[in-house]
Amino acid sequence: MCLPGLNRNARDFHVLAKSLSTPDEWRARRVIVVESRGRGRSGWADKATYNVIQELDDLLVCLDSWKVGSAQFVGTSRGGLVTMLLAMKAPERIDRVVLNDIGPTIERNGLARIASGIGVKMHHESFEALADHLSEAQGTQFPRMPCGKWIRYAEQLATIDPEGGVVLDFDPALAETVRGYSPDDPAPDFWPGFQALDGKPVMVVRGAYSDLLSAATVEAMRRRHRDLATLVVPDEGHAPLLWDRLSIETISTFLS
């Protein structure tokens, strides 16, 4: 089960899911990517329901509906937060976990950066124009990413707008869940959720330039979870794109 981030969609996991899934008769693996309410092909909802508690309830409904008793989870950012909440509410549904650039402590400056940019400009003239915008807004997180990959990133985040140009693929009301957050505000504490993963195999993936998950938090996670596996993705920040061979192979090995 793959769970995308706050304003992300199933396309984030296209490369990883394609690598992990197999129709092999004896070792078949099905990969499901959940698009939470307000993102991708899921419908938009009352903005009051755009919170991790509701998204956890939605996930449990999906698991029951698809008759998934337990699964391995890969959660990027907010998807990882939902996974930690799942560990508190229904730990029996979890076999293994990969947390992609998220941990129990969220760095305030990174959260404030996301809060200041999400939903501000939804429409762009083209994927190339969106790529330029992303490069400017997130250049500190991906300082060595070439132009072609920024366009690929833009195509992952947006769709063609029938009225012209391209539009980011989420309900702009999602921005209100973090709007106004400043580094002076307290960040949410997800340590109880991480501690609920005790006894489960867990891997944390951190972007080397991440401003949301610090190296200090990863070290604190390691002290509290004896078997924590870790991967630092070079030249990437929040959140690692999971396109590169190192990430794909390491996650695949961990989940095998």
Number of strands: 8
Count of DSSP-assigned helices:
9
Largest sheet: 5 strands, parallel
- Indicate the structural class: alpha/beta
Global mean pLDDT: 96
Helices and strands, in order, run as: EHHEHEHEHHEEHEHEH
Strand order of the largest sheet: 1-2-3-7-8
Helix content: 25-40%
Report the principal-axis shape. Answer: globular
Radius of gyration over all CA atoms, rounded: 17 Å
Percent of sequence in beta strands: 5-15%
Low-confidence stretches: none
* Ends apart, CA distance between termini: 14 Å
Structure in words:
- The two termini are 14 Å apart.
- This protein has 256 residues and is of the alpha/beta class.
- Helix 8 (215-224) links the parallel strand 7 (202-207) and strand 8 (229-233).
- Helix content is 36%, strand content 13%.
- The strands form two sheets. A five-stranded parallel beta sheet has the order 1-2-3-7-8, sandwiched between helices.
- The relative contact order is 0.18.
- It is globular, with a radius of gyration of 17 Å.
Structural features:
single chain; 256 residues; alpha/beta; five-stranded parallel sheet; three-stranded antiparallel sheet; 9 helices; 13% strand
